[in-house]
Amino acid sequence: MDFAMGFSRSRQGHDAIWVIVDRLTKSAHFLPIRQTDPVDRLAQVYVKEIVRLHGVPKTDGQSKKTIQALEDLLRLCVLDFGGSWEDHIPLIEFAYNNSFQSSIGMAPYKALYGRKCRTPLTLTEVGDRQEMGATFVDETVKKVNLIKERLKAAQDRQQKYYNQKHRFIEFQVGDFVYVKVSSMKGVSRFDRVSKLSPRYVGPFKILERIGKSTYWLLLSDQMSDVHNVFHVSTLRKWISDSGKKVSADEVEIQENLRYEEEPELILAYDVRKLRSKQIPMVKVQWKHRSAREATWEKESDIRKSYPYLF
Q: Which residues, by range, are in coiled-coil regions (predicted)?
């Protein structure tokens, strides 16, 4: 999972942080970038900082709670460190990767390397103080403690929001569950995420419970490229509305648990009038959706992508 957040410009000229998180171990990399960086520049950063260490990873989904907690953490730290925030990115990344994650029952560092890490907080030993300088050691410990406080505040706040909106669900090994997937309309390169309601594929058998809220599923052959460990928030034991189910045999589920929704029929035509122009629109019936979920799209986009409908 990856996403970028904009900030005030640092002394080095960067104004955004590119966050890349491994779904299984929860380990993260925070990469300072410019929002105006071209694709080839971002590709160089990706190879240098990610591929160099981990090879070419598969993209995958990530929980909204994790994203929001990381956004909160980084925004709080940027406020604390002002224009020098980029200088402290390594310490922020280190503090996050060495904090306990309840979903995996350990710190991301231990999940990734199989052992605990000696943190900067141990630099108070006499030998380290003499070798690295007492002032440097004291400042580093002070900053790491501040970052840890900000991380706990961000996690506590997001956990509070999450608990208010979600009820606790628990499954047993051997239960059959459905997995939530989202669809991409695919009519525009700027419309990556569909506004349509989610669908569910399955059922799949639970093989193992990992931690308090993560489950290992036995997926079908059609979903062989999808990572088979899921957070409980993406699972459903049963669905009363059969219209929300979709078969993995009917659609191609991608690694990020999305599939491309195809239009089936044009239901109506209209023109959206703006101040200086008029935009022809069409009401589209999607293949795996009910008539109530039909959406209005630009006629030019639909004609270009699906000329057979006309």
A: 137-164
Closest CA to 29 of 103, 90, 110, 104: 90
What residues have CB less than 8 Å from 121, skipping those under 6 apart?
A: 141, 144, 145
Per-residue confidence (pLDDT) for residue 127, from 0 to 100 = 55
Q: Write down the pLDDT at residue 193.
A: 40
CATH superfamily of the 2-165 domain: Ribonuclease H-like superfamily/Ribonuclease H (3.30.420.10)
Name the CATH architecture for the domain at 169-260: Roll (2.30)
Q: How many CA atoms lie within 13 A of 237 on its CB side?
A: 8
H/E stretch holding 40 reads: helix 39-46
Dist. CA 47–CA 38, nearest whole Å: 15
Residue type, 144: V
Q: Which residues contact 89 (CB under 8 A, 6 or more apart)?
A: 17, 30, 32
For the chain, the distance separating the N- and C-terminal CA atoms, rounded to the nearest angstrom, is: 38
- What pTM, to 2 d.p., does this model score? 0.52
Q: Quick one: how far is CA 307 from the chain centroid?
A: 34
Dist CA 280 CA 272 (whole Å): 6
Say how far residue 143 (Cα) sits from the centre of its chain.
Answer: 27
Joined tokens for residue 235: 């699972």
ω into 108 cis (within 30 of 0): no
Per-residue model confidence (pLDDT) at position 126:
47
The CATH fold of domain 262-310: OB fold (Dihydrolipoamide Acetyltransferase, E2P) (2.40.50)
Q: Which pair of tokens denotes residue 79?
A: 């406020």
Domain boundaries, the chain: 2-165, 169-260, 262-310
